Amino acid sequence: MNLSITMPPFEILYEKGPCICVQKPAGLLTQAPEGIDNLEDLVRQFYKDREGKSGKIYLAIIHRLDRPVSGAIVFCRNVRAAQRLAAQFRERTVRKTYLAIVEGKIETDQGQWSDYVRKIPDVAQGEVVDASLEGAKPAELGYQVLARTESHSLLEIELGTGRYHQIRLQCASRGLPVLGDRLYGAMQPFGPDVEDARHHHIALHARRLEFRHPMVDEQVEVVAPLPEAWEQSTIWKALKQQFKSKELS
Predict the structure, then answer these.
(1) Which residues contact residue 179 at a Cβ distance below 8 angstroms, ignoring those fewer than 6 apart?
(2) How far apart are CA 171 and CA 155, in angstroms?
(3) Is residue 74 a contact partner of residue 212, using CB atoms and an 8 Å limit?
(4) For 52, phi and psi rounded to 5 degrees?
(5) By percentage, how much of the chain surpasses pLDDT 90?
(6) Into how many domains does the chain fold?
(7) Which end of the chain is more exposed for a tag (fewer CB within 10 A), N or C?
């Protein structure tokens, strides 16, 4: 028996026609050069094994999640579907909802953040900048506080734009770094201990993805379950006591 057919190395959240949504594990790149583990190669190999193909197959990456981030991500198997779905992302008709645990207590229950951000040249890091600076792009998100303790807040975030490290940047610039995100000033770790720091996790999870199926008249809503790292976090457990919705279990 080929176990890769019945037990792919990722969780399939939705599959219909040329669209597949999977759960990206934290610590894994979405895409990478040959020889570096990444989700794209895993999904591609899964299709090769399932369909008994040895040559190249078409698989389009429509969007990406940062390496330390977990959650829902969608791929397409043919060009037409990829073009149509990519257009939805460009036109901002795709709804992307995240859960984030941040260091710090937010007093306001909800709000909107608008900034200008840019990637720092030759560095895997971004920054919030003045709108007049070269490379500055608008970054917008809305947030709701689902729970808070004296030291941490649980946010539900809906992205209005999809910029480089956007949520991580906008949170950190307000003194609210995502838990575990040492790159942007977090003081506390999150997730399992790892030998290679590049495989670390942060408490940012792409919880929900909503879009129109590019080939059939159907609205798709994908919900990604919380990873084990969340369930094992004492900080998450404390926040969860403040917010008892079964939706987050």
Answers:
(1) 101, 102, 103, 152, 186, 188, 190, 202, 203, 233, 235
(2) 10
(3) no
(4) 65, 35
(5) 86
(6) 1
(7) N
Q: What is the pTM of this model?
A: 0.93
Residue 40: name the closest of 15, 57, 17 by CA: 57
What is the pLDDT, as a whole number, of residue 1?
A: 36
Between strands 70-76 and 204-212, the pairing is: parallel
Short-list 20, 195, 165, CA closest to 100? 165
> Which residues are 4's β-sheet partners?
none
pLDDT tens for each residue of 102-144: 999 998 999 999 999 999 999 999 999 999 999 999 999 999 9
User: 10 Å Cβ neighbour count for 64?
Assistant: 16
Q: In the 8-state DSSP scheme, what is residue 185? A: T
The CA distance from 40 to 212, in Å, is 22
How high is the pLDDT of residue 3?
40
Beta bridge partner(s), residue 221? 210
Give the model confidence (pLDDT) of 46-67 as tens digits.
999 999 988 889 999 999 999 9
CA separation for the pair 33, 24 (Å, rounded): 18
The CATH number linked to 22 is 3.30.2350.10
Amino acid at 169: L
